[in-house]
Specification:
The complex is a heterodimer of chains A (about 120) and B (about 325). Chain A has 3 helices and 7 strands, in the order E-E-H-E-E-H-E-E-E-H. Chain A has about 120 residues and is an alpha+beta fold. The longest helix of chain A is centred in the C-terminal third of the chain and has 14 residues, at about 100-115. The chains are: A alpha+beta (about 120), B alpha+beta (about 325). The structure holds FE2/S2 (inorganic) cluster and fe (ii) ion (FE2).
Chain lengths: ~120, ~325
């Protein structure tokens, strides 16, 4: 059961295009934090501190607020084009994103391994 | 006697206030000063030297350097020679190069990690003093960690390119710095490729660990606690403070350590661990974990893979 509506908590739908997944992210929660809390997968979960870079995603639609993200993983150019670390991105509207971090690499690697067999 | 023990780790953090809160109130270290460049210095209550953690403001996470303490100032000259004989470039820095320290010998490991050796650091004493001391001080915060115990470094290993900096670091630490191997993981068709090395200079199973990764970085820094119950309580402290736990309390096969892993606010992995495992000695037979038993070695109870533990580094 989800009673958060009673408390007037604002939630934003987050959509992951790669896996066609969707979950609700309460305002004030990071995309990755909300996903992990719901036991969902789709974005790789790592340090939740913006330091390790495994949760890197590209925001395709929607508005997010961000906090400190490691420059080793998100360059200034990338940041300007909507690349964020999902553990440090807080939705302010419905969001559509695509995964560019470790998981994507794994998916791509898995696909390559399969196709080369 | 050469290298005695780990001296300190210099960490990069992206939010200094959040980092200070974490290391002071969650880990429970004592703030002991500010360096000339605004670095924040911390020590565990059971440590006597002025600091074991340096926090530096940065736009990324990770480790600036790790430093080990040698017994005598003259050891620095001897070790510098040994490193150079081994083909490693060294630089001897004047006193004060590291905050509140004497001369500091710098070199870069084959894995790319920066390391210093030093013989002198200002001492401020244990929180309980040395005259008829109480077993623990009042007013400890968070986990109440005793001391910085070891670091584990992610070292680039890329068999396709013939790169194995775990093995290269191991050889350098053995041959030039006098470290001993306690435990290892051997892989490959002939089980002769060393991809994990736990090494010591004290009498504990490891003062440094080298772990394989696609690229080099910081795997974790670890603080010592007394008992299994302290590890459970550390879990409570993390939950209370909304700290992201990587691995809830469990036991390692390697070193037999009782452990909990979590992340600091910039994503640097921390560990508090208890149990000194066993008495490590130079003549102790080396313990080997087979490739198919690696996860049993890492998480003894489940023996199951937990990918973020090996893949997530800063
Ligand atoms: S999980 Fe490490 S940067 Fe987001
Ligand atoms: Fe450790």
């Amino acid at each position: 059961m989800d009673f958060s509506g009673l408390k007037g908590i604002v939630k934003h739908i987050t959509q992951i295009t790669d896996t066609n997944e969707e979950f609700e992210c309460a305002e004030g929660k990071s995309i990755l934090g909300a996903m992990v809390e719901l036991g969902r997968k789709g974005i790789t979960s790592g340090c939740h501190g913006g330091g390790c870079g495994v949760c890197k995603v590209q925001i395709l639609k929607g508005d997010v607020k961000t906090e400190n993200m490691s420059r080793a993983h998100v360059s200034a150019d990338e940041a300007a084009s909507g690349v964020v670390l999902a553990c440090k991105a807080y939705p302010r509207s419905a969001v559509v994103l695509t995964v560019t971090g470790l998981l994507h690499k794994n998916i791509v690697r898995g696909a390559n391994a399969k196709s080369s067999k | 006697m050469g290298v005695m023990r780990i001296g300190h780790v210099s960490l990069r953090v992206m939010d200094m206030d959040a980092a200070i809160n974490h290391y002071a109130n969650v880990i429970g270290l004592i703030h002991t000063g500010t360096g000339p460049n605004g670095e924040q210095l911390f020590k565990g209550w059971d440590e006597w030297d002025k600091y074991s953690i340096i926090l530096t403001q940065s736009d990324r996470a990770g480790m600036n350097h790790v430093a080990y303490k040698v017994e005598h100032d003259a050891d620095l000259d001897q070790l510098s020679e040994k490193l150079q004989e081994y083909g490693v470039k060294t630089t001897m820095h004047k006193a004060g190069h590291l905050p509140d320290c004497g001369r500091a010998l710098h070199f870069t490991m084959p894995s790319g990690h920066e390391m210093y050796l030093f013989a002198e650091k200002d001492a401020v004493g244990k929180a309980v003093g040395v005259r008829n001391p109480a077993p623990w001080p009042d007013g400890l915060k968070g986990t109440g960690a005793h001391w910085l115990d070891h670091v584990a470094l992610a070292c680039e290993v890329n068999p396709d390119k013939g790169i194995n900096t775990v093995a290269a670091n191991h050889d350098l630490f053995r041959d030039a710095l006098g470290f001993y191997l306690s435990e290892q993981v051997l892989v490959g068709p002939d089980a002769d490729i060393r991809v994990v090395a736990f090494m010591f200079r004290t009498t504990t199973p490891h003062d440094i660990a080298f772990l394989p990764n696609e690229k080099s970085g910081l795997h974790h820094i670890s603080f010592f606690l007394d008992s299994w119950h302290d590890i459970l309580k550390a879990g409570d402290v993390m939950a209370k403070n909304n700290v992201k736990i990587d691995i809830p309390p469990t036991r390692h096969g390697i070193t037999r350590g009782e452990t909990i892993y979590f992340f600091d606010p910039s994503g640097n992995r921390n560990e508090t661990f208890a149990g000194l495992g066993y008495l490590a000695q130079p003549d102790m037979p080396v313990i080997t974990w087979d490739e198919d038993q690696t996860w049993r070695g890492i998480f003894y109870h489940t023996g199951e893979a937990h990918a973020p533990f090996t893949e997530v580094i800063t």
